[in-house]
Amino acid sequence: MSRGSDAGDLVRRLLGGERRALSRAISEVENESATGLEALRLLYPHTGRAQSIGITGSAGAGKSTLTAVLAKAFRAEGRTVAVIAVDPSSPFSHGALLGDRIRMQDLTNDPGTFIRSMATRGSAGGLAATAADVAAVFDAAGRDIVIIETVGAGQDEVKIASVAQTTLVLNTPGMGDDIQAIKAGIIEIADVLVVNKADLPGADAVEAQLQALLSLAPAGDWQIPVVKVSATKSNGIQELLDAIATHRAHLQASKPADSARYGQARRQILAAVHAELERRLRIGELDSQLDSLAAGVAERTTDPRSAAVELLQRINGQWVKKGNASEHDVNRGTC
Amino acid sequence: MSRGSDAGDLVRRLLGGERRALSRAISEVENESATGLEALRLLYPHTGRAQSIGITGSAGAGKSTLTAVLAKAFRAEGRTVAVIAVDPSSPFSHGALLGDRIRMQDLTNDPGTFIRSMATRGSAGGLAATAADVAAVFDAAGRDIVIIETVGAGQDEVKIASVAQTTLVLNTPGMGDDIQAIKAGIIEIADVLVVNKADLPGADAVEAQLQALLSLAPAGDWQIPVVKVSATKSNGIQELLDAIATHRAHLQASKPADSARYGQARRQILAAVHAELERRLRIGELDSQLDSLAAGVAERTTDPRSAAVELLQRINGQWVKKGNASEHDVNRGTC
Questions:
Q1: How far is B316 from chain A (nearest CA, A)?
Q2: Are residues B149 and B24 in the same domain?
Q3: Distance between CA atoms of residues B6 and B138, nearest Å
Q4: Nearest in space to A226 (alpha carbons), one of A190, A193, A191
Q5: Are both B149 and B20 inside the same structural domain?
Q6: Residues A151, A86 contacting (CB under 8 angstroms)
Q7: Which pTM does this prediction carry?
Q8: Nearest CA-CA distance, residue B31 and chain A, Å
Q9: Do both B157 and B16 map to the same domain?
Q10: Which stretches of chain A are DSSP H helices?
Q11: What is the chain B residue with the closest CA to A306?
């Protein structure tokens, strides 16, 4: 069976509600295989119905617990849920740690909840695109809610959560440094600021700090709310659900030209540009060209910036050579 | 004065030891201006003498203190030092926080030490390239040692430190989660593992964990050492200096074809590729093209991956149009 019809068959079965096709489509998309990229193109017109929510914050902020609580709340409303948990890779095996899966155990027996742990192979830049792609697969498969949870607090890691429509940034009192999220520069991507573990001392101080910070921000058309919750005690969850719903309504009411309306699409495209570049750099031919350029830099016959420009030109050359086919997917599948 | 001769004059004065030319060159390079990129090309043949050391680890691991202690140790040996401290940006002003500068105050009165704080505008990917560029400027200006200190613990942030020849990854006992560095996946980039705050309880356990991890790693030609230090008490510093020197000797003894020898150059080129791509995406024309593609994705007439491929092609098209000049720098300056 050719690659094109393989992807076509996969998408047909996915749209028909076959759970095995969903699993397989996710794997193909995650591996950025030719079938996966073709499937993505075919299923994309069927997306746009799901509501996606990104959850991020420092290690220990309670992201997984909040994810589980929100998932259960949506399930109680009768909506189907998918969770994409981006786990850190262990340094040598590149396998995913089990922590988050274990914490989600009580959800896993519910057929209305689909949990997918993504191993963090490769860079955070590439992962953001892949998480968005997997979210699109869930969307096409008819999931009502897609939650993307990112472990990690680096500036690029949090971009993984920001490919969602609404991004929650978690803060907690008593982490030693109350402004961790601020220092990591991750508040910039927040649509809703959450003070988790609000039953702990210091929660009000964290809330006040966040409000003070927001008062310094340039006035936008969306007023970022600060919501206090206690995920373990399920306090404040309704307020958080309301804030998420309000943000979704804000996006839908935005005019087509507004940055809010196309913001998510812009972020997804930029993530895909990085993923595409990394994908091409993994290819054998380019890798050996990179080797010879590295030798030039090491011997000072060229500099890294000029070498980068040359490498980009070679990617382009390869592109032009193989890019005569009119379909992007053919191109993507072979180069 | 034309851009080319401006850069030429700047590089001449820099090589002549003019401190003001050094400051200006750093600023131009940091801003990725046409003059900066041209200056970088001109000064690169004069680099290769300095020893560069990257220092990274979680927040609170004591990176700045260790940086200051190492800087003073090198100064005591009569070597000149440059420190590039990559500070987190404050979320709204995008200015650098003052913390690290303050901690370095006792070094700043020494003319043999040059400290440069880099604001983290833009992405971590772009920053890695810029930090490497600034290190090259210091190298050409005759600094013996260049220390690149990265604040932040994300997978892409730590790449900033890994553009150095020798990368130290700091771990500390008593951070609540002893394997933070492991979870963040940052041990992969370590040439030397440092257990800082070795006077605190739990240091031996951290050391044992790291050794256990290393025993699982595929055997390479470089045996990663674990060195216990107490930066505040200046304990273990000589052992750390020895480990750094041993790694440098290892790199120099490696055969030209060895990955160790060209590893740094490869990392620098890949960082520069990302920086170059981001630089081009900031350009007005491409930005409006991104807008129309985002509209297409939002309306489901295309998908993010196909839009990314299209955007890359447009970058290429622009490239071909403006890339007829034979000098890369002209190209870089205008597109």
A1: 6
A2: no
A3: 19
A4: A193
A5: no
A6: yes
A7: 0.70
A8: 14
A9: no
A10: 3-15, 19-30, 34-43, 63-76, 99-103, 124-140, 159-162, 180-183, 203-216, 237-253, 259-281, 284-298, 304-322, 328-334
A11: B328
User: CATH number for the domain including B65?
Assistant: 3.40.50.300
Selected for mutation to probe chain B from A305, A306, A324, A331 (highest B CB count within 10 Å) is A305
Express each pLDDT in A190-234 by its tens digit: 899 999 999 998 899 888 888 887 887 777 788 899 999 998 888
Min Cα distance B250 → chain A (Å) is 15
Residues B82 and B160 in one domain: yes
Give the tokens for residue B169. 């990854």
Look up residue B152 and give its amino acid: G
A86, A269, A310: best mutation site toward chain B, by most B Cβ within 10 Å? A269
Q: Do B272 and A298 touch (CB under 8 A)?
A: no
User: How confident is the model over B230-250, as pLDDT tens digits?
Assistant: 988 889 999 999 999 999 999
Q: Which domain holds residue B327?
A: 283-334
Kindly state whether residue B15 falls inside one of the protein's structural domains: yes
Query: What type of residue is A235?
Result: N
Q: Is residue A273 part of a domain?
A: no
| B27 CA: distance to closest CA in chain A (Å) | 16
Evaluate whether A300 touches B322 at the Cβ level (below 8 Å): no
How many residues in chain A?
A: 335
Nearest Cβ partner of B291 from A177, A180, A262? A262
Residues A96 and A231 in one domain: yes
Beta-carbon separation of B328 and A308 below 8 A: no
The answer to whether residues B122 and B164 belong to one domain is: yes
- Count of structural domains, chain A: 3
> Is the CB of B300 less than 8 angstroms away from the CB of A264?
no
